UniProtKB/TrEMBL annotation:
GO terms for molecular function: oxidoreductase activity. The lineage of its organism: Eukaryota, Metazoa, Chordata, Craniata, Vertebrata. Belongs to the flavoprotein pyridine nucleotide cytochrome reductase family. Its cofactor is FAD. Keywords: FAD, Flavoprotein, Oxidoreductase. Pfam families: FAD_binding_6 (PF00970), NAD_binding_1 (PF00175), Oxidored-like (PF09791). FAD binds at R113, Y115, L130, K132. This is NADH-cytochrome b5 reductase-like. It comes from Leptosomus discolor (Madagascar cuckoo roller).
């Protein structure tokens, strides 16, 4: 029961590297110490201290404060304006050039990023930030994975790049999956999802448990394509690489899923 309440240590990909105060690791150490005190005293009420602090409308450099999102406005194809509520007529009271750190859960992973509010520093009852969200869907068959990797790594290497990526790798069997350690490492990033489609596997039971949830047997067909596209946050731009037959099939499935032809590229 106590293990379920224990804070989870962040992975390196969760830290934006901008010298935030508090850094996600600072918050983890503080929450871990709080959990250890509560466990030692067998008093779960001590875990509520953080929630009580979060009701304070003034920003605190040592802890996170919870705010509700009151509206999201799409400004361009991939840029959104988020408005957050502040209690009563309170304001952030930031100095010129100061930024805030926003923390939330994306794909089950806790992520934090630094943003400079676009609302006036003395705005009362709210603050606003701009966020840019691109979306890529990569469809790779066998060695067609090769041109996808430099793109993926350029996204993960740039801490300012918030492009969401879904990579679908199609292979004959589990043993034929190329570069497993690298792909598993990329999948730990908050904005990267990786699915595997194994055409000659009949069961997932013999696969490592860490692969079973995101692996499908059989071929990548029209129904599976629609399911993957529907799981994206917005209509993605699609990159395709594989045999000519694979590319033709993928193009046909994308059309059936409502993706326009100018929204995909075939290597």
């Amino acid at each position: 029961d106590w293990l379920a309440l224990k804070p989870q240590e962040p992975s390196p990909s969760q830290c934006c590297g901008s010298g935030c105060k508090p850094c996600i690791y600072d918050v983890y150490e503080k929450e871990l110490a709080q959990w250890e005190r509560a466990k030692a005293k067998q008093d779960k009420s001590l875990l509520m201290e953080k929630k009580e602090q979060s009701s304070n409308s003034e920003l605190n450099p040592d802890t996170f404060t919870a705010f509700n999102i009151s509206s999201v406005e799409q400004l361009t194809e991939d840029t959104y304006q988020y408005r957050f509520e502040l209690p009563g007529n309170s304001s952030l009271r930031l100095s010129l050039g100061q930024h805030i750190v926003l923390r939330g859960v994306v794909n089950g992973l806790e992520v934090q990023r630094a943003y400079t509010p676009i609302s006036p520093g003395n705005a009362e009852g709210y603050f606003e930030v701009l966020m840019k969200h691109g979306e890529l869907l990569m469809l790779a068959s066998g060695t067609g994975l090769a041109p996808m990797l430099p793109i993926l790594q350029s996204i993960t290497d740039d801490e300012e790049d918030e492009t969401f990526v879904t990579l679908v790798g199609c292979f004959r069997t589990f043993d034929k999956i190329y570069l497993k350690p690298l792909l598993q490492d990329l999948a730990r990033y908050w904005n990267i999802r990786i699915f595997y489609v194994l055409s000659q596997e009949t069961s997932l039971e013999n696969l490592p448990w860490s692969y079973q949830e995101n692996t499908y047997t059989g071929r990548l067909n029209e129904d599976l394509m629609k399911m993957i596209i529907n799981s994206c946050r917005r209509k993605p731009f699609v990159l395709i690489c594989g045999s000519s037959a694979f590319s033709e099939d993928m193009s046909r499935y994308l059309k059936a899923a409502g993706i326009e032809e100018n929204s995909w590229f075939v290597f």
